[in-house]
Design brief:
Strand content: 15-25%
Helix content: 25-40%
Length: about 190
């Protein structure tokens, strides 16, 4: 399926009856509390799966999934996914490895939230969004990602994100050239006290 930018793929409380695979584009995962507070829990890229809770007996979606850019997605019905996992061992191995990597990422996010400053958390989020480490070349993150969204992901205020982003720009860790670019030198913020 091809979806335009800012389209809801599924909503919190919808029936969990399928898994999605991103072929092209960026997807934002959010949750909303009973009092209406929204939190961004992830931004996914091509090669990522989401909605896999349906495979573990989740009856209703725990959050929202929406497109950040135009997306090409593969929607896989729960029954078809389970059949593929049982029959296709190579696919099953790849999917389990993906889930384990994602679990490791969630654990690292939790440790980051508990023990690191908001500046370090922002630096880590920017590096993850930019898929840092590819030949030291600055990479576009997400065109026009808002500081509000970054603040939700970091667990701080938009004004603090603005302060740190200005500081990172002055230090040459990031650039704004039609979109946000992140340099691998930002890793210094994450690695040092």
């Amino acid at each position: 399926m091809t979806l335009p930018k800012k389209r809801v793929i599924f909503a919190q409380g919808d029936r969990a009856d399928s898994v999605f695979f991103i072929q092209k584009g960026k997807v934002r995962l959010t949750v909303v509390s009973k009092v209406g507070k929204e939190a961004t829990v992830g931004i996914l890229s091509p090669g990522d799966f989401f909605g896999e809770g349906a495979l573990a007996g989740q009856l209703l979606r725990m959050g929202f999934a929406s497109t950040m850019t135009e997306c090409q997605l593969m929607r896989i019905e729960k029954k078809a996914m389970i059949t593929a996992l049982h029959r296709e061992h190579t696919f099953s191995d790849m999917f389990v490895a993906y889930l384990l990597q994602r679990n490791i990422r969630f654990e690292a996010d939790l440790v980051d939230q508990l023990f690191n400053s908001s500046e370090k958390r922002l630096a880590r989020i920017l590096l993850l969004l930019a898929h840092f480490g590819k030949d030291g070349v600055p990479e576009d993150v997400v065109p026009k990602i808002s500081q509000e969204t970054l603040a939700e992901m970091v667990g701080t205020t938009r004004s603090r994100v603005s302060f740190f982003m200005n500081r990172f720009r002055k230090l040459g860790f990031i650039d704004y050239n039609g979109g946000l670019q992140v340099h691998s030198s930002l890793l210094n913020v994450v690695l040092h006290e």
